[in-house]
Amino acid sequence: MKRILLGIALLMAVVGAFTATGTAANRGPAEIDIFGGSRGKVPFPHARHQDRLGDCNVCHSVFPQETDAIQTMKASGALTSKQVMNAQCIKCHKAEKRAGKPFGPLTCNTCHVR
Ligand code: HEC
Ligand code: HEC
Ligand code: HEC
């Protein structure tokens, strides 16, 4: 009996470790500086959005879960400049504001920093 319990405990520890590292790796960084061109970079609280929004595809249906995905797509013409900014970031922040919920920044210098 003891052996079986020990076996189960070990198995759970191993599965737990894999799940933990797997999640950490797949979620990407908690904070990301997005390239913001002439206006300066955009510090983005990634983890906070993941926790609040739940669904990765709110954003990642438009660009993949990869480093510098937005810049790469802008360079190839798959995304236009400011498309993510307007169609995702600002659009959602405005909608949340209208709905009377907590919302993110809406003015240039609250997103862009030099
Ligand atoms: C509110 C928008 C948003 C949501 C929701 C979101 N992400 Fe992201 N994610 C971004 C942005 C912006 C980047 C940076 C893209 C770039 O650098 O061009 C990014 C980058 C990433 C990267 C690459 C990071 C790197 O630099 O290596 C991973 C991995 C990732 N996200 C995973 C996830 C997962 C998993 C979820 C859901 C649990 C999620 N994201 C939800 C906006 C979002
Ligand atoms: C909610 C945050 C947010 C606000 C508010 C915001 N921006 Fe941005 N901006 C971004 C992000 C993210 C990017 C990079 C992604 C993209 O190009 O869509 C960006 C990109 C840019 C770029 C660079 C485009 C390029 O490809 O070189 C310029 C210029 C810019 N913004 C100007 C502005 C101006 C002007 C305002 C105010 C009227 C503003 N932004 C408000 C988040 C924001
Ligand atoms: C689908 C909705 C949604 C999208 C898309 C979204 N946000 Fe937000 N954002 C929010 C909400 C809701 C909050 C308020 C969260 C809170 O108070 O915890 C927020 C908060 C923020 C904050 C302020 C965090 C703080 O410390 O007060 C920043 C900065 C921000 N968002 C930037 C961005 C940028 C840049 C993008 C685009 C890459 C983006 N957001 C896309 C919903 C969104």
UniProtKB/TrEMBL annotation:
- Report the GO molecular function annotations: electron transfer activity; heme binding; metal ion binding
Pfam families recorded:
Cytochrom_CIII
Kindly indicate whether the keyword Protease belongs to this entry: no
Q: Which domain of life is it from?
A: Bacteria
Q: What cofactor does its activity depend on?
A: heme c
* Signal peptide feature range: 1-19
Q: Where is the Class III cytochrome C domain?
A: 31-112
The record's InterPro entries line, in alphabetical order, gives:
Cyt_c_III, Cyt_c_III_dom, Multihaem_cyt_sf
How and how many cofactors are bound, per the record note?
A: Binds 4 heme c groups covalently per monomer.
Q: Which UniProt keywords apply?
A: Electron transport, Heme, Iron, Metal-binding, Signal, Transport
CDD domains annotated for this entry?
Cytochrom_C3
Q: Where does heme c bind?
A: 46, 49, 56, 59-60, 89, 92-93, 108, 111-112
Give the protein's recorded name.
Class III cytochrome C domain-containing protein
List the source organism.
Desulfosarcina ovata subsp. sediminis
